[in-house]
């Protein structure tokens, strides 16, 4: 155990991707700003960080991402118009995005992979453990995954990733982990990692999802990590190195095996599922939306073949 027990207060959220799967919608609008019901996807992630006690947040952005900064800034004209109308409910919702936490920004520049995006946060993070949260991975607020990961990092030191069980045929879409059990049902030790392996080469069906709590030693490793799959600097490769390093050097990787509710807003079909699911559960929208949805589904023609 490394003894590195300083509390985590900072979160790095990479948000520099081009969002090509959502073109043409993302030609001029960042994918992180696409609405999930009536909030942009990125706000759900920031709210999750703040709810877990991480109120110092760094967004790693790129070109054409100024709307991200605008969203978390004051909108004086809009607020004044809502105040004049006496629309207190919408005014409160507009103001919430600008008081969530202490939000900072850095440009990634060249899109050289997730590992490079994390490395862009080195100056802001310093010599502290920190969280990395991918903007297109949403975790249901009723399932406190990040809080559990922070507990595990405090207990063991080193770094912590989140894993889910996936269909073995789909492991090529993820970074995959070889593990052995520790105490409890949800915590394992990671012994090896493979980025997007062929199904027959995968060490398990446990896949990494977009939540990490990292020891600052990851920055030194990333600086020495050569481009991997896709010609990009892969965070998975750096984590594999950390897993083999001694604890006193910041090594060791544990994982929380997550069995809760996760929404992938980076995939078009899952984005639609997420919007329907969250809208159905809303107190203000749910009853009418569910009633319409039942009628709509009942009137659908049967599938051919």
Q: How would you characterize the largest beta sheet?
A: 9 strands, mixed
Total discrete domains:
1
Count of individual beta strands: 13
Task: Using the coordinates above, name the CATH class.
Answer: Alpha Beta
CATH architecture: Alpha-Beta Complex
Q: SSE order, as H and E?
A: EEEHEHHHEHHEEHEEEEHHEEHH
The CATH topology is given as Spore Coat Polysaccharide Biosynthesis Protein SpsA, Chain A
Task: Give the strand order of the largest sheet, numbering strands 1, 2, ... along the chain.
Answer: 5-4-1-6-11-8-12-10-9
Mean pLDDT: 87
Our count of helices gives 11
> Globular, elongated, flat, extended or rod-shaped: what is the shape?
globular
How far apart the termini lie comes to 58 Å
Q: Outline of this structure?
A:
Helix content is about 35%, strand content about 20%. The protein is built from eleven helices and 13 strands. It catalyses: alpha-D-glucose 1-phosphate + UTP + H(+) = UDP-alpha-D-glucose + diphosphate.
């Amino acid at each position: 155990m490394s003894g590195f027990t300083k509390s985590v207060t900072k979160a790095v959220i990479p948000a520099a991707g081009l969002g090509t799967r959502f073109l043409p919608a993302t030609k001029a609008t960042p994918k992180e700003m696409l609405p999930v019901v009536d909030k942009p996807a990125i706000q759900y992630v920031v709210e999750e960080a703040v709810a877990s006690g991480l109120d110092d947040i760094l967004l790693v952005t790129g070109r054409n991402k100024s709307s991200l900064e605008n969203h978390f800034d004051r909108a004086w004209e809009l607020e004044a118009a809502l105040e004049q109308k006496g629309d207190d409910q919408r005014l409160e919702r507009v103001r919430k995005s600008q008081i969530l936490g202490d939000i900072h920004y850095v440009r990634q520049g060249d899109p050289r992979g997730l590992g490079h995006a994390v490395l862009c946060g080195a100056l802001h993070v310093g010599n502290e453990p920190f969280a990395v949260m991918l903007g297109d991975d949403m975790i249901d607020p009723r399932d406190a995954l990040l809080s559990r990961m922070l507990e595990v990092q405090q207990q063991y030191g080193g770094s912590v990733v989140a894993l889910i069980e996936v269909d073995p045929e789909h492991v090529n879409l993820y970074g995959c982990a070889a593990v052995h059990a520790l105490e409890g049902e949800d915590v394992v030790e990671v012994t090896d990692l493979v980025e997007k392996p062929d199904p027959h080469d995968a060490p398990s069906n446990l896949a990494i999802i977009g939540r990490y709590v990292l020891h600052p030693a990851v920055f030194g490793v990333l600086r020495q990590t050569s481009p991997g799959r896709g010609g990009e600097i892969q965070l998975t490769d750096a984590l594999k190195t950390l897993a083999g390093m001694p604890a006193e050097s910041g090594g060791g990787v544990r994982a929380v095996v997550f069995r809760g509710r996760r929404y992938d807003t980076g995939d078009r079909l899952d984005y639609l599922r997420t919007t329907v699911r969250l809208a159905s559960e809303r107190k203000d929208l749910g009853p009418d939306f569910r009633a319409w949805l039942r009628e709509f589904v009942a009137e659908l023609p049967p599938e051919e073949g």
